[in-house]
Structure formats: structure tokens, C-alpha cells
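Table S7 (text form). Paired inputs.
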Amino acid sequence: MRILLIEDEIAIAGFISEGLAEEGFAVDVAHNGKEGLAMALDHLEEYDLLLLDWMLPGMSGIEICRNIRKQRPAFPIIFLTARDTVDDVVFGLETGANDYLRKPFAFEELLARIRVLLRSSAGEQTVFRHKDLELDIARHQVLKSGAPIELTQKEFALLELLLRNKGKVCRRSRIIEKVWDIHFDHDTAVIDVYINALRKKLDTAGQVSFVQTIRGVGYRVNDD
């Protein structure tokens, strides 16, 4: 899952982005309104949710929200703001935000709101299955033959990407960008380490691995 955070307070942006990264999300950050809107509109199809401060330099969160709503009416947006009157809440929601969180807030509450909103997004699939494997994004849980399997955050994110694209080849460049949030040429050997870890935890002894290596290209989970 990839989140765009538009927040001008450096400390708050760092607190949120570090917390979300630990939970397995890829996070891009903008610190002013114009930069944030440009990032959103240029890459809107790549993002799953927007965390948006109301009062920003360059362009307000309200203006950004209105612009994004024209492009993707159902795109999940959560306002983060110190404005806390009932009128402010109503105005923010009527502008197009799906949810509204008052500053200061506990990270656990923000995380819960994000997961609820992602789970309820129109048409958003949150459970992925392959043979005896089941990955549930909302519960952040992986089951094999009904038994829970403990995965690290990166292992979970990698498995989610592979299952979301079942039957398709996930190129190494895309994996490193989506799972490790790296946007340039980089040593992708770390991917092999995590693929091997997934295989050890999830493969069935005596059977072909559920992850197929496409040599020189990437990896694929087959449909069958």
C-alpha cells in the first residue's frame, strides 16, 4: 500500500511517515500544498490513500482535496488538522474528505482510521488467496492452511504485491520501488533474501515453490 502525506510540519511528517513505514506502508511526503498537489496528480493511480493537512503553504488542503476529487471521486482522503470546531469538521467532509483527525492524535488511532478507510474503499480487495495461503490486509494477517504465519513488515508487503499481481511478472524494479520505496536504480539483491525467507515460511515441503523466478526479470505467483 502506498500513501501520500502532505504535511508542512517536519516533525509531524517524520513521526507519521516513520510509523507507517514500520507498519509496511510506502510513504511519499510533500511539505507544501503546490508540491503535494503536483505529486498527487502526477501519480494518483499509484497511491492508495492521501493524508492531508488543512493549512499548508502554497495551497490549502481544501483546494487540494477539491482538485483530487475531480480526478478520482472515490479516492480515500483523511484530513489532519488542528481546526476542531463542528463547522470545520462539516466543511472538511463536505469538501470531499472521507475522514477527519484532530491534532494532536495518537498514531494508533491514525493507523486504525487508515485501515478502516482502505478496507471500505469502493471495490478495494483486502483478502488475497492462493491455494492454502490467505493474506488479509485489514487484519494484517497471513494464514497457511488456516494457521497464522508470522511475517515481517517487508515480507508481508512483498507477499501482498505478489498476490495482488497473481499470474503477472513483478519486475525487480517495481518490487524495490513498491516494497522498499526506492525510486532509482539500486542493488536489488535484497529482494532475493526476502523471497527466500517467504519460501521457507510458506512453501509446502516436497512441492514446487509458490513463487516462480523469472530469471533476469523478477518473480511471479502462478494462477494455478
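Next pair, protein 2 of 2.
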Amino acid sequence: MNSFISFMERRFVPIAAKIGAQRHLVAIRDGFVAIMPLILAGSFAVLFKNTLFAWIPGLSALIPICDSIWWGTLAIMTLVVVFSIGYNLAKGYGEDGLAAGLISVASYVATLPQAHGDAGWGYIHWGYLNATGLFTGLLVALIATEIFVKLTKKKIIISMPDSVPPAVGKAFAAVLPGVITLTVFGIITLLISLAGLGSLYDMIYNGIQKPLQGFSQGVGSAMFLTALINLFWFFGLHGANILDPVMNSLYLPALEANASAVALGQVAPNAITRVFFDSYVHLGGSGATLALIIAIFIICRKREEYKAVAKLSAPLGVFQINESVMFGLPIVLNPILFIPFLIIPPILTFVAYLATVSGLIPPTYVAIPWITPPGIGAFLATGGTLKSVMAGVVALINLGIATIIYLPFVALAERQARGDKDKAKA
């Protein structure tokens, strides 16, 4: 085990650290984080529409409010993500984030088909603006911002005198980079159209996004990603943050598709969504560390440091916060806890996946705050209906499974502490 840890520290950790600090991935991660209030608002609008407002006749007149909130949030998710990523990437370069965000949105819209079905020119279907356009929007935002930043840094700008107000100066400085960036995407759109390939959206959605979404709905890929998150964590790297761009790109569209289907009275099509992991896998945080705290309370007698950390961390663990456990026990570089910490998330993913595809529990479709306690989170994420009670039960069963897996390893740590004390007495 020591040789394995040494090898991973030399080979894996430096690469992982570079990935975690990569400017474009950081911009994508921060871009998604920034729009989380909108995702939560849209998700709860769908939840209330299909539960509270649907069950109480007197409140049914308020359903149009929920529809309007959904229309202004989840239905235009790609637009706000494009702006947010462009903004954050430009700020990462030290350039004008506002201008970059606006130019990114304009560039994305410039690539979209301007008619849909029998509608005339100038009509953009909302399907291009919701989460199905996420991959295309993400790529356009990155490329548009890169062009804008490079032109700005090369001083291909309109410079204004110092006497001009700063806001006006920034606006004029963005004119030439903005025009050139939009022209590039206009040319790309024309070439794709002349080639008979439809649009940039069609090319990316059919060539990249659909295959990746199919891949992401496989339980094997979901199990692998949860294990990878914990592998990063084991070496002291924030695995959830490092893989957040990947998880959001793969599983946020699935969540939005489920929410849209439920809003239209249809069956949610996806078993695994972004909130699926917070509901059934990250129970107490990455590695289901609330289960580890429970295991410590059950077994530990000699390991005073384990008991102290568990007591301090239990209230935080209920709300899915586990840095105190990660670095307090620690789990980081702890060879005894490495195996359960790595294998528990894939096992919990598999259990919850089977429960979902079998129809035992509903699919998740409501974005809940990640700090929602285990059981309650699964109940709310699946709609808060009577059938959702079983989803909460499955989450608690998963917590029990994780606790059982942690128990022998905590017992091993306990025996190790007892042996160390006996040696000290001798």
C-alpha cells in the first residue's frame, strides 16, 4: 500500500493538480456554480406545480407562475451558462468579463437556426436554449472568449482618451474584438449551412452530446466517475470540484430533460441526473462520510482522535459537509480507509440505479441544495410525492450499506490503536 501511495503521489497527484487548476475547466465549473440559483428556482417551480399546486384546488390558479419561472430559468439554461462561462474565463485572464459574456451569448445565438418547422425566419426554438444546447454553448463560449481575449491582449481595440468615463472606454475597447469574434461565428455558420450539415448545434449534438449522454446514463460510467472523485480526494485534491465541469456537462442536461418532461406531464426519461449523486451517493459528502462517522460512534473506543473528529463533524455531516472528516481523521492518504472510501460510492450508485430503473423509486428531477440531509434530499429530488417516500428510504438504506462497509475498517483502525498503546506500555 505504501508503495502504491508513493507511486500515485509522484505520478497522479501532479497531473490531477494541474487539471484542477486548468483555466478553462475552472471557468466551466464557476460558470455552472454561478447559475445554481436559477437551476434551483426552476426545479422548485416544477416541484410545486406538480405537487402542492396540483393537489390543492385553490392553488391551481398559481400554476402559470410556476410555468413562467421555469420558462425564465431551466428553459434558457444554455444562454445563462454561455454568459457565465464567458464571463469567468475572461476574468481568469484579467480581461473584461462582462463584454466577454455578452459576446459569447451573441456568438451562440449567431450559430442557431433562425427558423423552426413551419415558422418563418427569425424564430428560435426554445429547445436550442435549454440544457440540450449545453455542449454547443459551452464550446462557443470558450472559443468566443479565447478570440476576444487574444484580440484584446494584442491591442486590436479602439482606445479612448483618459478623460472618457471607464465604462465608455471599456465598451469601445470591446467593439473590434466583438465584431471580429461574431464574424468568425457568422462565417462558421454559413460554411456549415452551405455544406448541408444543418447547424453547429446539430453537428455537436448528434456527434458529441448524444453519444456522451448515452454513455453517462450507463451505470458503469456513473460508478467510475464517483470512484474517480474519491480517488482525487484521497490524495488531498477536491475531487468534486475537479470533476464538476464533467459532471455538470453530462448530468445537468439529464436533470433538465427530466424536469421538462414532468412539467409537460410526461415520464422522466433519465435514471441518473446531477442531483442523483447528492441524493443517494454523497451521503454526508464525498465517500458517504456520514456513514463513517456512524461507524466510528459504533466501534471506536481507543482512537480518541477519531471519536473527537466524529463528534465535531457529525452536525456538519448531516448537511453533507465533510472537510473536517477528510482532513481531521484524516481520510486523505489514510491507507486503512482507502478501500472503503473508494468502493462505497460505486456500490451506492449501483443500488440507487437499480431502484430507479426497476420503478421502485421515481427518477430525480428537482435540483435540491447539496446541503440537504440524506433521505430528505432524495424525497424532494424525486418530487415529494408518496412514491418519493421510498426514495428517501433507499437513501437511508444506502447510508446503512455504507456504514456496514466502513465498520470492519474502522475496527481495523481501532485494533491498530490498541496495539500501539500496548507497545507503548511494554
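The chain has 21 helices and no strands.
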